[in-house]
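This section describes the prediction task in plain terms. A model, or a person checking by hand, is given the sequence of a single protein chain and must write out its three-dimensional structure as a string of tokens. No templates, partner chains or ligands are provided. The sample shown here is typical of the held-out split.
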Amino acid sequence: MAGTLILGKNEFKLLDQIGSGTYAKVYKAIDYQHQREVAIKCMLLDSERYGLLCVVIREINLLLELKHPNIVHLYDIIRRENEIYLIFEYMNTDLYQYMLHNHRPLPDIQVKVYFYQLLNGLDYCHMNKIFHRDLKPQNLLLDTKGTLKIADFGLARDATIHKRAYSRDIVTLWYRPPEVLLGIDIYSSAVDIWSAGCIFAEMLRNSSLFKGDCEISQLFCIFQVLGTPNEKSWPGVSLLPNYNSDFPQWQPTSSLNKYVH
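The expected answer:
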């Protein structure tokens, strides 16, 4: 899609649509005023999409707080009637697309470089009491210089805001940690560390490590590799809402090496 988008005093040349979802479309564009490539996330807001508005406000507030080389930069927010436009720095691709077109596991040195940047950005989030809660390759953006940046903070949470229970409707299934699958109400930044570990393995394998098709299937995929947890290996696990003493009793694998290479 080519064309011109005028937002107040800002004029953009739309080049291509590079992403779309239920409520938003993302375009690659040229920002004439600043002479730079940008990504414009366009969302339509109406009275029936109150939930979306909450997500947008959360993402904006967090991105305005977080300034780090490994977190995508939000340049501007523009509101026009019932539309909102988020103007981001442009990144060439995401880790999912990069691996998809690579057709083979990434070289170890490249995995180290990307994983270091992911942990660097994640550490900054956690130091600022922010849980991302939806880490996956699609939300890790890459540029041509090898820089990795964490994006899409729509499900992120500020841990300084006290709440009796956190939402369990977080993290795409294949990257969801076992404590969330087992129904824990209060979790920590460890939810992001689990997701990061899954991404690390995926870069080495060029394939997701745990590929369940529902929550119980996802749990069993994890248990088959790491063993079914019990009170000895995980004190308190039997008290979690979704724990079942009748789970199949898998033993942890003797070596993870065969699963990541």
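For orientation: Residues 164-168 have pLDDT under 50 and may be disordered.
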